[in-house]
């Protein structure tokens, strides 16, 4: 088994979590991915991991036609049974602002007022470890505000609590849709969860995950993830492509290449391609 990370494609909550729960908005997810073999469950149980859920759900991801949101490392997802979530990087990359003209963004809806979009994030190659860190926003009002900020428009009155309406009227389009079969385990001693995911397009990947409320808690969460990786015998130094990398490589190659050039996705190696076929 090997470990790794990818873009902000994954979610922390289970599919039956309350959609749009304000108290969850702004949580920080720290995770590291790994490929798992047939002995993964046995190893987890040997460390005291308790099975928490076995569920199946469909994820749908949305962006504008020129991929402005995902190129800024912001991932807008609608999960079956859970609702909408926006995952965004913790810190922007300073000095790299882009304009609507440079990105060829669609014109804002009539009456909208233009704003400068936020800065793009730090690419994967600029990070000092393989674990990814994303803020998870589930409050509909906050999701709409952040998406509009990136696209340079003011939120319309009817969008505040209706993400679906905002998505439609802003011209966002579905660029990925797939079903995941997930087995979730919890290690109470390390305050970690482990998800073993198998997707309907033929790829399987696991992830070790910690949830924190403040950025100051991230280093300690990284230590716990590394400790579990050692105890499971994982290679924590080899990058592993996540499900979104493999999906886009297989079904949306132009989008995949654009995100690769931006340094936001892990390269899909031959081994991942073979497993995904």
From TrEMBL:
A GO biological process held by the record: thiamine metabolic process
One Gene Ontology term of the molecular function aspect: thiamine triphosphate phosphatase activity
Main location class: cytoplasm
Keyword Transferase assigned: no
Compartment(s) of residence: Cytoplasm
Keyword Ribonucleoprotein: no
Source species, domain of life: Eukaryota
Co-factor requirement: Mg(2+)
A GO-annotated cellular component: cytoplasm
Quaternary organization: Monomer.
Family note: Belongs to the ThTPase family.
Main function: Hydrolase highly specific for thiamine triphosphate (ThTP).
Name of protein: Thiamine-triphosphatase
